Amino acid sequence: MSAATGTATTPWWQRSTVRVAGGVAVAAVVLFGIAPAVLSDFRLNLLAKFLCLAMVAVGIGLAWGRGGMLVLGQGVFFGIGGYLMAMHMKLADAGPGGVPDFLRLYGDGVVPGWWEPLRSPVVTVLAILVLPAGIAALLGLAVFRRRVRGAYFAILSQALAAAFAILLVGQQKVTGGTNGLNGFRSFFGYDLADPINKRMLYFIAAGVLIAMVVVVRLLMNSRYGELLVAVRDQENRVRFLGYDPANVKVVAYAIAACFAGIGGALFAPVVGIISPADVGVIPSIGFLVGVAIGGRATLLGPVLGAVAVSWAETGLSEQFPSFWTYFQGALFILVVAFLPQGFASLGTLWRRRRGTPADAPDDPPTTHPSAPGSSPDADDDAQHAADSARTAGRHA
Amino acid sequence: MSEQTGTGEPVVPPDATGGLDPEALEAVIAAPGARFRHDYLEIRDLRVVFDGFVAVDGVDLTVTQGDLRFLIGPNGAGKTTIVDAITGLAPAAGSVQFGGVELVGKPSHKIVRAGVGRTFQTASVFDELTVLQNLDIAAGAGRGPWTMLRRRHVVPPEVEAALETVGLTQVRDLPAGVLAHGQKQWLEIGMLLVQDARLLLLDEPVAGMSQAEREETGLLLQRIGEQRTVVVVEHDMEFLRAFASSVTVLHQGRVLSEGTVAQVQADPRVVEVYLGSGAHGRGRGMAASAAEPAASTEVE
Amino acid sequence: MDALFSQLFAGLSLGSVLLLAALGLALTFGQMGVINMAHGEFIMAGAYTAFVLQAFIPDAGVSLLVALPVGFVVGGLLGLLLEVTLISRMYRRPLDTLLVTFGVALVLQQLARDVFGAPNVDVRAPAWLSGAVPFLGMNLPKTRLFILGLAIACVVVLSLVLKLTSLGRRIRATVQNRDLAETSGVSTRATDRLTFFVGSGIAGIAGVALTLLGSIGPTLGTNYIVDAFLVVVVGGIGQLKGAVIAAFSLGLLQATFEYSTTASLAKVLLFVVIVAFLQVRPQGLVSVRTRSLA
Amino acid sequence: MTTHTLPLRTTRKRALALSAAALAAALTLSACGGARTAEGTAGTASASGGASCVDTSGDSIKIGFLNSLSGTMAISEQTVRDSLDLAAEEINAAGGVLGKQLQIVAEDGASEPTVFAEKAEKLISSDCVAAVFGGWTSSSRKAMLPVFESKNSLLFYPVQYEGLEASPNIFYTGATTNQQIIPGMDYLAEQGKKKVFLVGSDYVFPRTANKIINAYAEANDIEIVGEEYAPLGHTDFATIVNKLKSSGADAVFNTLNGDSNVAFFKEYKNVGMTADTVPVVSVSIAEEEVGGIGVDNVVGQLTAWNYYQTVESPENETFVAAFKEKYGENRPTSDPMEAAYTSLYLWKGMVEKAGSFDVAAIQEAADGVSFDAPEGTVTVNGDNHHIAKTAYIGEIGPDGLIYSIWESDGPIEPDPFLEGYDWAEGLS
Description:
The complex is a heterotetramer of chains A (about 400), B (about 300), C (about 290) and D (about 425). With about 400 residues, chain A is an all-alpha fold. Chain A has helices at about 1-10, 10-40, 40-65, 75-95, 100-105, 120-145, 150-170, 170-175, 195-220, 225-235, 235-240, 245-270, 280-295, 300-320, 320-340, 345-355, 375-395; strands spanning about 180, 185, 190, 275. The two termini of chain A are about 15 Å apart. With about 425 residues, chain D is α/β, with parallel strands linked by helices. In chain D, α5 links the parallel β3 (about 130-135) and β4 (about 155). Chain A: It holds the Pfam family BPD_transp_2.
């Protein structure tokens, strides 16, 4: 919303391109320059894992923060992406015509026909890009058309995650059951035991994540982005403007699913395993923590939140396993109840305190040099009004 | 969140912006009159039943182009339900035709695309979007995916004109949530205009407006009504007397009386309904207004 | 034939368990729109109440009967605490209550783990509930009959309360039109609190009852919460009869699927059926029409 | 991303020129292109996982304990951690290993396979531990296996499991199938049971175990009258017990895990079945689970393990006494705890036999290392890295402890792939 305001109050089309380019440059320096330089291979791989989780978060930010759809079942799409990639790696490791080990151990020793196409890297990548989005689109059309929304949709998507995990476990012969798929040796032919190639995976994850953020940024500022917010806040009103809100929501839901799928597909080689434990109800809710904490409706909030939470979890749970559970619970409670727009809203508050007009959250304060009084009165009033509105919304 | 901003104090005083600008209206509705010639709303035997409760019971209603029709009646008479039924929000049986197109059974967004626009009792604009964005969305139902996925580079002329018409040019970059109540109502009307609705269904459009704003709104509606088909659900009798060209009185889901303001006011059945049930409830204005017009103004 | 009747009973019994778990939710979710993920942990609290009471009351039967009202109060007080501290400030953000209460659930689980230890604990079933009652050639376990009876009793009492008492009238008024109720002098705040107390209290009763069937451990609640929500979603909000029909339908369906396929597949099939059902009736089996646009 | 043939599939590829090309390539999502530019510059390959960074210079040596202390598996794994701590304390008090005190690096696996993999890597690469002890679920082991293999480090895994695995980098100190499942079935066959019903949780161990049991049954003239799986966390066993009852089974082989056992046994008892008529052999119920199920509900039922708290041996007396002294009188000891305790001593034995903490040296020395464990004498098999163990069938007593009623003729040689059983042909 504040981003939307920003676009309208400033000569957006000139500045935003610069801003996007600047943002990408900063992110690239941090992710491609600083992080690899200061982190050990182990920590870098860990960061790669967090980036994969952040991809899911970016999608959730779009669907939930901007679209108002509380997606409690993103684990499903994460899992589909992950299993597709994992299966491809298992088949590739087995060699042409070979049978992956788990199919021999738990299954009938043959590759089921519907796994066969995944021997091809092209088919695999296409499937990863298309299947999660396609399934989300179909499901979304089914439920959104019938105006299943709000809590109903949230609970349904959660049940979907539960059912998906049970299905994966139950079909052990072809999915590896609770053990999931693991022990990958190569990623599109590149040896995964080689630290250099692991590093490469990190760069891919970082690049993909940046690309996703850029895509979401463009979407947020497009007419579609405005419409999505409109649907979130007044779905029926949008219907009476001649739109079918179902279609509007489906697009965001499918994009979120696609991002989750890609996140899962990279997660598998980065972590070396994908299992039902990564896709069920609990991990699906877990994806939301970072988004809520970072600021669900902002561009970078979900990304930073997801990375920060994962990092904290790894660090804190080492020393205080039971404390971590309390901490996680408390984070949920405090942030959602008292800081619904996440930590991103703290930044806005802080800027307001200092009398600087609030702007888009991804806008560095320095790019907005206008001091109070330097602009025409009307504009100033407008800014104050916008600020108050936002505050009112936040404390609602 | 959005509800909260709605109930909060308006940040911008209504007088900070210009009033309505009827001149600019021409730019929006100056379409050839021929476009609207065959537009009329024809409702036949409309019935709406909720879980056994008959809310609308066999209503016939015809509103022609150029008419400014007011729907009145005591609480529970079925006024809003009829509007809901026309726009696909309530389960309807019977026939509702506009411009020769059958609307019953269509999903809401298709009904809207057939040229029907409506507002709601509580102003429902998109609080977090700016005035401009609100209007832009209203104007854009027919846009292709490619246009949708790009940002807005220029303000569409019909949006520009609508801004002028409803006097919100000055505040076009403010979030709609901070507008005063009356301004929100105008914004809604503006949205109907850019949406190019040929049948406008307005549910209590002047509730919460000052006397001057009502005047302006009434004039605006009259001008729109010259070309398009307009149905207004309203309790404000003074407003009704000033601007209605015809009135339909509903009672318990049925049409009680129909005609000009004078005809309806003289109808003994109407007087009886309003006096009989009428010491309470919002319908009291009809009878009372005959004696004491000034007392009839109600604020939602 | 025998198996058929046994399965019928299994389905009814499963339905009664679902009903007990979901009844309180139907009240809090249906009436207030609050998605309380900690409802499962209130069930857990009820179960631990039964466990603790057993340490003080040696007779298993007496202790179980005492645990039912005490469990109700424990669950209810937890609910009240939650309502007053957190949920009351979030009525305008129903979806957010889901996340907040999930956090509460995490904390309560860990609390149970730290207080009672991670391993399961045992509540002894009273002697008069052991064994089975022969009926039409079947043996119906007494515990399941007890739970079936308890579930029915809860529904009857609750609907009587809703119908006959002033609290009930206030609750129904609030559910149908909150604003109107408020302007008519109903204190919706007090009503909300009471509703939450009662709804959470029923979760406590459910917890006590479930000790007869399953394990008592920190994760007890998570095993039931998704199913309980599905019952409410299928049942529709605002009326108890929806939840009752939904619980028994889902119970019977699950038992049927499970008998003809496997327990895992049954869960998945059940989900498919529910999605298909919501295509037909998106607002659930029964729903109270409200005037609000949103 | 496009397909390409991979001439160097087995060869190690070094990507040196990461910076510019990789950055650009990664940004455009055509990741493979990026890696391929680097492909040509095949550099000098260091050994996979690199030279070990284990520091053996000081007077202490680091080892890692990796168990779930949070999440659903914490219940069980905490007990393993306790006995590992006990063993480490004892060893340190007795002078350490090769004169070095053990320094424990403890990690939480959080009941998630991915976390196990991540923490294993951390223990090996960042903490440079000489060996890791832990894991419980099959999925946690499967997740860690590639890490230990690629980093060439050692894992000691203390839980009975489904077999069909042998990694040079893992020592399996719990039972494999021929030391637990097959003795369990042997016992039922000896008792003249002809109709066995299988019930298990829906995951890898039960499914694999039941695959083996089916093959065994076919060869031994036993009929499997039903095979049912319940999702983990399943709470309503009315239907499954209905099926069990109407199947006419005269014994049940139970591979249910965790909470489900409680619901299963309560239902079993409620419909009026008893251990006298239809005994249940369980392979996942140990002493600490009995309390949670309720002794009333399982008294007289059978279990198959390699250790019970009641095993009569001086080693066990010492172990039980030490454990209770450290953790409290009411804490029982169980098979996985004992196997974990034993695993640390076996590692000590191997290190001392090898005279080195080096992985290769330990692998070399492992064969034949034995330890007088609480369960009896166990010996490491150098070929498959499992250990020879004695099998005990136990009966749950009214005091909640389990008493052995049958035992195998001495320790059974581990046979994870069941190569020694004709009927098992084609299983793996």
